[in-house]
């Protein structure tokens, strides 16, 4: 026999379904923001900025309870509360801002409270009891199930973010300085009892806006059964190591990290803004092209795995734009790498390895664009591999037709200090290692050098000339060698036809 009893109970219910660990983490971020904005600083516009961020975070975690009409009314209340603070921060404007934040939160997240008395009671509980709830709710972040889910969701994003930060530090001396400032000995200089108390106060104040809970009356139906009720099985933690939640967290972190690197490159590399103390522009520009390419390759690998065809994240309307944004930042990263290498070559001359790096960077950028194309067109990874192989084949075929020996030699001579007045002196020994195709550039370099050429240099050049003549034999004949010989013959004819005056 089963009897049903309906009772009215008053309980506290949270709004939204975000996990406690994530909320605690974001509360710490807000406390850090408050530390940067307020601690030891004069407060003014910073309070307005913090209130806007707090309202945005509250909306993010409580979007399930949002209604367009109530959201518009709450936004209007918040804007009205911000106006006096923007005009001037004083005791009255501060209290108005606090009241507007509380009222906006009530209107947006508690539609069941309609009467004036109920609303006043809810606001009283928010102001008097809300700040103390953080110290009761935060320990829930450390229960086994939530902790396991939190670790599984954040392990991959945190690990890859650490790798990206290390690569950025290797490529960017500004980020390297930031990482150095994370030294525990340096952090201890900023930790004090007043600061710890300030953080505790800020956590208590922001928590009611992140983890919203209102007292409300609900009907609870209690079922009483005659027979024994079997015990509930403990919940199983089912976590996808690379599921949508992990991918979303990863993309948010990665976009923020890459945005920092892109902004720094935009300021210092592209914008030529003065660098911080103890840093030179040459050191910033000529460092880290290769670590940035490794970063882009890791990013491409992650996107391929995360956005695999048929995967849970492929059709997500939230994840897709983040992927496009991140790939776009990676393309910008490759462009910065190419600019860094170009600036490096402009000073330290051209070599085969540096040409290969230019080509490789171009292929990486093309590969990133093709990844976005695959995702947008819903193509398979097999299609992506095929298109990349075609692009690689075209590039290799084109490279086979380019006379890199002559190109490198001509570039190095024309950009040398002897020819242009800047850069390094001609490395004649390197030119001689390029073979007969470098002979025209070597002859030009000899003319640019003051005084008579050394006998050893002349003998080594003559050996290249002899090698070139042997290459014209029918067994070793090549069209490139034939063109070179015609050029050398024309050059010798011009010199014999124009004897020196006197």
From TrEMBL:
Keywords for the protein's UniProt record, in alphabetical order: Membrane, Transmembrane, Transmembrane helix
Transmembrane region(s): 20-37, 43-61, 92-109, 154-175, 187-210, 251-270, 290-310, 322-339, 351-371, 383-404
Tagged with keyword Transmembrane helix: yes
Pfam families in the record: DUF4153
Membrane in keyword set: yes
Name this polypeptide is given: DUF4173 domain-containing protein
């Amino acid at each position: 026999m089963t009897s049903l009893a309906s009772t009215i109970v008053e309980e506290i219910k949270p709004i939204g379904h975000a996990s406690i660990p994530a909320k605690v983490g974001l509360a710490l971020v807000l406390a850090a923001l408050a530390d940067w904005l307020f601690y030891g600083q004069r407060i003014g516009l910073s309070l307005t900025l913090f209130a806007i961020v707090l309202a945005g975070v509250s909306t993010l975690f409580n979007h399930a309870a949002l209604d367009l009409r109530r959201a518009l009314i709450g936004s209007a209340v918040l804007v009205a509360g911000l106006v006096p603070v923007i005009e001037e921060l004083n005791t009255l404007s501060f209290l108005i801002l606090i009241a507007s934040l509380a009222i906006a939160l009530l209107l947006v997240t508690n539609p069941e409270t309609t009467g004036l008395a109920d609303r006043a009671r809810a606001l009283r509980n928010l102001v008097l009891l809300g700040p103390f709830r953080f110290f009761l709710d935060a320990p829930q972040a450390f229960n086994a199930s939530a902790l396991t889910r939190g670790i599984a969701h954040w392990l991959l994003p945190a690990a890859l973010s650490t790798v990206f930060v290390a690569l950025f530090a290797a490529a960017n001396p500004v980020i390297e300085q930031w990482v150095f400032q994370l030294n525990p000995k340096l952090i201890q200089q900023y930790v004090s009892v007043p600061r710890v108390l300030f953080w505790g106060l800020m956590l208590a104040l922001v928590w009611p806006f992140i983890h919203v809970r209102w007292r409300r009356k609900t009907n609870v139906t209690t079922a009483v059964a005659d027979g024994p009720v079997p015990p509930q099985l403990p919940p199983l933690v089912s976590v996808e190591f690379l599921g949508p939640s992990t991918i979303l967290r990863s993309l948010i972190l990665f976009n923020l990290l890459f945005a920092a690197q892109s902004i720094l490159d935009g300021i210092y590399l592209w914008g030529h803004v003065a660098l911080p103390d103890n840093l030179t522009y040459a050191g910033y520009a000529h460092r880290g092209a290769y670590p940035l390419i490794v970063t882009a390759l890791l990013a491409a690998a992650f996107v391929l795995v995360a956005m695999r065809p048929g995967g849970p994240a492929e059709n997500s309307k939230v994840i897709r734009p983040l992927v496009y944004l991140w790939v776009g930042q990676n393309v910008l990263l490759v462009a910065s790498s190419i600019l860094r290498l170009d600036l490096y070559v402009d000073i330290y001359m051209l070599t085969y390895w540096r040409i290969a790096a230019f080509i490789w960077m171009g292929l990486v950028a093309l590969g990133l664009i093709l990844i976005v194309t695959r995702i947008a067109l819903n193509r398979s990874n097999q299609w992506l591999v095929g298109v990349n192989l075609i692009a690689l084949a075209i590039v290799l075929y084109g490279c086979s037709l380019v006379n890199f020996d002559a190109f490198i030699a001509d570039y190095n001579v024309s950009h040398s200090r002897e020819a242009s007045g800047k850069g390094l002196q001609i490395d004649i020994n390197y030119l001689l290692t390029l073979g007969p195709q470098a002979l025209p550039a070597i002859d030009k370099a000899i003319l640019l050098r003051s005084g008579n050429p050394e006998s050893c240099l002349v003998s080594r050049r003559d050996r290249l000339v002899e090698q070139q003549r042997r290459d014209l034999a029918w067994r070793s004949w090549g069209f490139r060698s034939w063109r070179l010989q015609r050029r050398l013959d024309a050059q010798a004819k011009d010199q014999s036809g124009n004897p020196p005056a006197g």
